[in-house]
Amino acid sequence: MSLNNRILALIALVFLCALSTPSSVWSQEPPPATTPETTTATGLTADDLLLSKPETPEQLMQAVVQLTDLGHAASAKAYLDQLLKGNPDDELILKLRDKYGPAAFLRLANNKKLQPESITLLKKMESAFRAYATDPSRINSLIDALSGTPTERDIAIIQLKSAGEIVAPPILKQLSQSQDPARNDELTFALTQLGDPVVPPLIAALRAPQEKIRKIAADVLGDLARPTDALYLWNPAFSQSQPQSVQVAARLALAKILGKNPRKTYELNRHEAQLVLKNAALNLYQKHEAKSETQSIWVWDNAAQTVVKKELPAQEVNLIEGLRLAKEALEMSPDKQDVQTLYLAMALALEAYQVGWNQPLPEGPGTTFNLALLSGPSAVSRVLALAMKQGHTPSALAALKALGQIGSRTLLHEQLDKHSSLIAALNYPDRRVQFAAATAILQLDPAKPFPGANRVISILTRALRGEGTQAAIVVDSSIPRGQTMAGVFHELGYETTPVQTGMAGFKAATDRMDVEFIALEYNIARWGLSQTIANLRADSRTANIPIIIYGPLRLQNKIEYSTRYYPLVKYMVESENTDDIGSQLKPFLEGLKTPELTGELRSEYRAAALYWLSHIASSQRTNIYDLKQAEQPLLDLVSDRSLASNALITLGGIPTRTAQEDLVQVITTPTFEADVREISALQLAFHIQKFGLMIDTMQISALQKAYQAAKDPKLNTALASVMGTLMPDSKVVGERLQKFQPAGALP
């Protein structure tokens, strides 16, 4: 076909397309896929629609664009395949981008007939342009062009703007190094023209060591920043550590951003600055949920003399930003206790995050833990209260460790929300915190009973056997429904107590001190739902117990809205099906806990629990702590040589017949090592002396046989002390005296 005929055919095709339902041409499906050689609806091949057969990459791209625009994407796909098989380099891709524009690549990528090849082409274009736009040598040459003619400067700014945030670091570096005022003005003006992308780097520049950089950053932010960015200007505006030039620039910037009169910057004040910074830091402290995604953060790098961008986990970014804001608030009011508490809590949280769940906090000079020790027990107790209120387990653990080292017995009776924060920690949802609280209290060595003493023992006992019973309380005005829900929770593994009123539920929760959650039926009485929740959250003994509200689906949104300000509260749709309840309950409760303990840590907890139980038994503190509930798992631990001693010492302090029988069983079991049996014998003698003889004649006979068979001198002596405590009569004593032959005596 001649060239003229091809042109006429092309015109005819366009004309026919225009006549056929033009209003819906873009909504119709393209014709069936064809190859370049197949014919179209007009009887023409794809080659006929083109002025010439494409061969070069540029011609192939032109063919793809033309055929797609004519509604023949299926015919264009073969040319697109051919283009990609040629593996075009970045230079060629950028040349095609300059010719057709980014919109053409996007339009091709959105055409389903060209996918996935068209998407591959779009990604190649984006990658090539990104590499070109971010090339350091190109950016530096554009920055140098800022000193050129006005036209060259305008062109450079336009191209710098297209590169985005990455142009801020080299400009700030040149500002750090430049001593030329004219050059500084050029660079500062360029920053003001670059728009939103350079705002985060400039916020980081507010922490630069150079006064000049901080002032320039404040000046430029006044032109570019939004009201949400004003947060970072409060400290430069009012901190006494900032020079006058920075304060003035930051206050003017704040006035611009917040819509104030720049001549009335006195309307902004130091008190407002401190309050804004504290609330922002507290908000970030609350955002401690573990998330997998990463987040960008800009920081000043002294070595690079500019800002650098880092990609960190979102949780770590929140802690870093929160710590920065808390410190800036502290600079405003160094003597305010609530700000001190927040800063110390944030610092402990960040250090705990960085070392990981299962690692102890670093100790020694310059560590946050040492700072906590130096801050005193009152400050650390406030950190513990804040951490529990916000559900921040890592800083609660750190605070408890510090309190165990520097606290005093008065902490068990301090009035924080009506009760001691240390006592409240015994009932925190996380097992790590419960155990840390129990051991911290034991380190304080209380001399008189205190609320929660039995809870200490239950926590230690649970550590001995890994898991203990899990208690729950159900509050429901309807006895049958309450019993039904209690049964459902029991099937899920909870020892459940049903009560009928909010007041009774509150009393049960404060009495037991081992409650995993409290379930409230939405229509309870005496107290009503809102009053019951308010009272549970106001008392530190119950402030951290999760609350489950159950009722019909239609009330879920209403009740969730009315309880939104209370922590650890969840609405659950009522059901008698255990699976339904479990699917709603378990994710909520599991989300409140830290990662599972490793096997090594479980062993450490068990050993520590046994140590403290044996300490109670041997230090005459059984008048404070009731060891009876710890008895059951002790005998099983005697077979572990590393745990046997403390397990037996603890048994020796439990005033029950079964404890005495367990000691006898160890003594009379030959498979135990002699030293283990010796410890058991000494504890049995002590037990009989203190609590009286509780074993029967058969067990006494077994002890006598064990004594006669004991060849180990220390074991034999220990068993002799047992035989002596059995109160032998005069006849038995006489027989023993006659049989005895002293060493060294004449035969």
TrEMBL record:
It comes from the Bacteria. The keyword Ribonucleoprotein does not apply. Residues 23-42 are annotated as: Disordered. Residues 1-27 form the signal peptide. Keywords: Signal. InterPro entries: ARM-like, ARM-type_fold. This is HEAT repeat domain-containing protein.
